[in-house]
Amino acid sequence: MSTPIGHYTGESNYNTAKMTSSAKLSTPAFSGIARERQALAVPIMLCTSVSFGGFLAGWDVGTIGGITNMESFSQNFGTLVNTWTGERRLPAISVGLIISVFSVSSAVGGLTLAKLGDYQGRKFGIYVALVVYCVGLWITLMNDTNWIQFLIGRIVTGLAVGSTGVLVPIYLSEIAPVTIGSTMIGSYQVQTTLGILMGNIVNYFCHQVLDNDVRNMSWQLPLILGYLWVLIITIGLIFTPESAPFLVVHKNAIPDAKASFAKMNAISRADPKTLEFIDRSLREKHKSRKEDKSQDILDWARSRPRLGLRLLVGICVMSFQQLSGINYFFYYGTTIFEARQMDSYVVTIILSLVNFLSTFGGLYVVQASGRRPSLLIGSIGMFCCMLVYASVGSFAPRGTASYVVVIIATCVYLIFFATTLGPVTVILVAELFPMRTKATSMAVCTSFYWMCNFLVSFLTPIIADQIGFLYGYFFAGFLLVSAVFAWFMVPETKYMTQADIDAFYDKVR
User: Where does the record place the Major facilitator superfamily (MFS) profile domain (predicted)?
Assistant: First the structure.
């Protein structure tokens, strides 16, 4: 789930590396870093609460597949398939539509609703998205027999999650303390994986405890809990200042920008770092007004330094993440493994736990190995795992041994994803764009991400019903293309400031 970053990330990483090296040289330097980290405790807490916006996207991924697979959901929303037993089932195409329509509306929300963040502020845009999310939940809960109404509720909540998917990472990148910018932005991905894990656990509880007597609460409880996540994000927003870059570039509110930057970096308003930030932001603002005069979007795409090419790279990287098949497991894990007579709800918890724990390693791997190597290693590793998964699942005799191999291959696949493609996609794509085009570029990239998500989530129940595990070869093919694309088209942005990235693309002809 995916999204934008402040244009100081590369510089932040460089500063962090310099500070770490200096700390090894002297005890006073080490003590200074310790004091700085202590001072940043409050900003880190605020960023963490805001990053909970990623939890909303993960929560949907972790719950919706299990919800549609519950007996109570099928009995309430399905069509009658057995007059003797009264059994009801939703057709595969209806299940695919319920799950996938969320992605389409998320793409629309990222392109439209997220625009409020440019005009009224990042916080205001997120607040509006949270209100829309609550309305969507209410629509899904108010009727327990009409699946079309449930579908409409999914569309509304999708608009909100698509908007937060753009605004929250942008907001995080602009408010995060300079020295730990990448880590705070990466926390969005951590929250997403946490949402998936918690969603799977709640689904298991509902399936085991509440689903047996076909009570509506078994599928309604995961939806009701959405209001709690909204409350947590709202509390964080109340105490977090508006984005300092937004205040400078869009509102020209210099005193407020100084206060915001100083608070989130635990320094004074008169600190040289604060003044340097204001000066840099003003220069970026004037540069934007001078260079961004085109009226045609094609003129903008052709403008230098190669904004069109950068947009293409961002679109492809975001799309390949979805076409890797990651949500094939998370959306339909309960259905996939149930077909093999496994305890599908337990298996999905195992997979999401592996994904969540591995994400922490991803924050280190992306920073240590770089953006481009992470994409290459991740794509190749996941390609190999998907080949094993598809081959064993399709051709090996059914039995405990083949089940274990399939689950192990899936777990290793998830480790590769969580340590490489998962976090690096958000960080790399957000670093590509200058401040003046960041919101628009990220919205376009995110919309392609959601459209690919839609294709996977809509087609999976239909295709997998026909070819089963052979579907894995489809994702393996895209992972191979992803590796080739990363080798030839993706630049290494580690330790690069926005000026460095502009200079790099300015040389590309």
Answer: 46-494
